[in-house]
């Protein structure tokens, strides 16, 4: 399964079985984490085989059971130009799709009191954990989520005309954005194709964890549109 296929197969799962990850799955995710820590200036940590991978921390939304594996998305706000929430969203969703492509189920989660926990991750003095990803074998299959209409997620410059007149790659990118997970399913993002027909402006709108959602959605757009077809607006 490639990442585009994983994007279509991914549905949030909050109840997991006790089946452990295989050595190959652990190695695949560990390798991807090492690469993303470098490329996104993060300190992502992978907890696997724990009794309670949440370390006793309460969740922001949703009840979870059987979580033995967790990807803790950790970093500092003093990093790349993109803010930490956006960087963790982008990197975390790539890890989510990598896990799904490896035969695993996942769910995004925000943990409260992450600095006062009984878990296996470590937070430095200037670090925080905007979100995490529960990973494992789902006790039941996840379900597709509702999405905003494409015309609300993707806008085009007046010089281009209507959304239907946008290039095919842009519409493919928006189709991929529609599949992106977001806090409470609100999809607080907007992508605009500018008048040159090549540059795309991505924005976080008002909403819960909007910049995490933006990072996730930008990863989906890149995969759907094809990185060689556009450039991001400054």
TrEMBL record:
Residues 2-225 form the Putative nitroreductase TM1586 domain. Gene3D superfamilies: NADH Oxidase (3.40.109.10). One of its GO terms (molecular function) is oxidoreductase activity. Coiled coil: none annotated. It comes from the Bacteria. InterPro entries: Nitroreductase-like (IPR000415), TM1586_NiRdase (IPR029478). Pfam families: TM1586_NiRdase. This is Nitroreductase.
């Amino acid at each position: 399964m490639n990442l585009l296929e994983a994007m279509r197969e991914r549905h949030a799962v909050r109840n997991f079985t006790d089946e452990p990850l295989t050595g190959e799955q652990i190695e695949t995710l560990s390798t991807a984490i090492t690469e993303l820590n470098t490329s996104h200036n993060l300190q992502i940590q992978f907890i696997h085989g724990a009794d309670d991978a949440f370390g006793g921390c309460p969740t922001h939304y949703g009840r979870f059971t059987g979580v033995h594996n967790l990807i803790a998305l950790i970093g500092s706000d003093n990093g790349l130009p993109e803010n930490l929430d956006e960087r963790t969203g982008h990197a975390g969703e790539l890890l989510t799709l990598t896990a799904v492509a490896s035969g695993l189920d996942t769910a995004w989660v925000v943990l409260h009191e992450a600095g006062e926990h009984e878990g296996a991750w470590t937070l430095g003095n200037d670090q925080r954990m905007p979100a995490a990803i529960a990973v494992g074998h789902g006790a039941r299959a996840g379900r597709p989520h509702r999405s905003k209409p494409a015309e609300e997620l993707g806008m085009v410059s007046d010089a281009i005309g209507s959304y239907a007149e946008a290039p095919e790659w842009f519409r493919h990118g928006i189709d991929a954005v529609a599949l992106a997970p977001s806090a409470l399913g609100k999809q607080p993002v907007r992508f605009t194709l500018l008048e040159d027909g090549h540059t795309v402006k991505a924005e976080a709108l008002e909403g819960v964890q909007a910049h995490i959602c933006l990072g996730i959605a930008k990863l989906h757009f890149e995969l759907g549109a094809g990185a060689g077809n556009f450039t991001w607006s400054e």
